[in-house]
Amino acid sequence: MRKASTFKAGVARVNITPPVGIELSGYAGRKPSVAFSDDLYATALVLTDGTTKAAVVSLDLIDLDTEYVGQVGAEAARRTRIAPENLVFCSTHTHFGPTTRERDGDTSTSDTAAYMADLKFKLAGAIQEANSRLRRATVSVGRAISGMAVNRRERTADGTIILGVNPEGPVDHEIAGLRIDGPVGRPLAFAFNYQCHPTSQTNTCRRISADYPGPACRIVEDATGAMCLYLQGACGNIRPVLQDDDPEIPRRLGGMLGGAAIEAYETAEPIESMPLRVASRTVKLPAKTFASAAEAKRVIAHWEGQIEELTARRVARARVEWARRLMEHARAALESIQTGKPLPPVMAPMWAVRIGELGIATAPGEIFVEIGQAVKERSPFAHTMFLGYTNGHIGYVPVPEEYPKGGYEVERACRVAPEAAGIITDTALALLRKVKRARK
Q1: How is the chain split into domains, by residue range?
Q2: Which of 114, 28, 17, 102 is nearest to 60 (CA)?
């Protein structure tokens, strides 16, 4: 067995704040940004056990698609020789950052296109810098509890599910923290995993912001001296307990979460940091469809009317495009029902990372909290993190029992069938078992 002293880590950060005026993402589309609240960052953590080398990158962005992740991975590999399949990009999912994909038409000269072209090299550069800073390191794992999140699938008196507050709904309050110390115990990095939508302000807010993960990380860094990475978890049906357009709200939530994260840091217990192993697999998830052709036709008619109304009102083009995508999906589903030809599956790249006795499982979308909890409860590791919004984005993945209830996550932002939750759970566990079996 290798000695723990062969384990090394390096960390680096780059500012990825876009210009004011760029289109914002989140809330199914809204008008461009008009002001600035706080900076957005990407923080890269590179790890090696002398045989395997991997990087985990936390980004203050809504998400990244799989193709773009591949481009960044290729550039980072060219600079560092870290295998692209050993790179994990986890978006915090802030709803107050730039859109990460073009909306429509020939927009090759737009600020979004320019931002994304530059971002690729910034991310690769951060990984390169972290790789150049590799130092011998030790690893500890801690946990704490924060009550700053609540289930958001509220049932109204008439049975409708809305984006509200559901105090009785499932929620995961656990913070899992990975503390890394350099030579002579010097603080190096702290990566912590929590699960809550960064939607502390509403869709009328058009200020660029990292939302609560930004101040939470700053609080941890001020208290510990370790560079902090926020790793978003399974929060598809989870929101903050506070939500208001007051820019003070993200700071208050960040204080609640950051204070608890400090507890996880300070009470972290050392673990054997060997070995470092990575495994990945792309799974095919069945596409969401409709029970009948009549249902599909009703949905098509609904979105045709919505597109006409939104266009007449001259709302943000992103809202019109959102409605158009939903209509196109309904049309494809109708064709599938009429012809008997299945819809193409939704491809979901998934990862597992082993750092000694810590297992990290990832999925590329807005995963319901119950799925993350199931993976953590059944994990073969003593300590487990589950990350959503990682290395791609496939939309919402509800648990099967929520589909009949409807609501935004099911009806407007879900591309996968009810079986998807089980496939993701089983795949995450299979990947965790695979890296667990790796020889030390």
Answers
A1: 4-281+346-436, 291-335
A2: 17
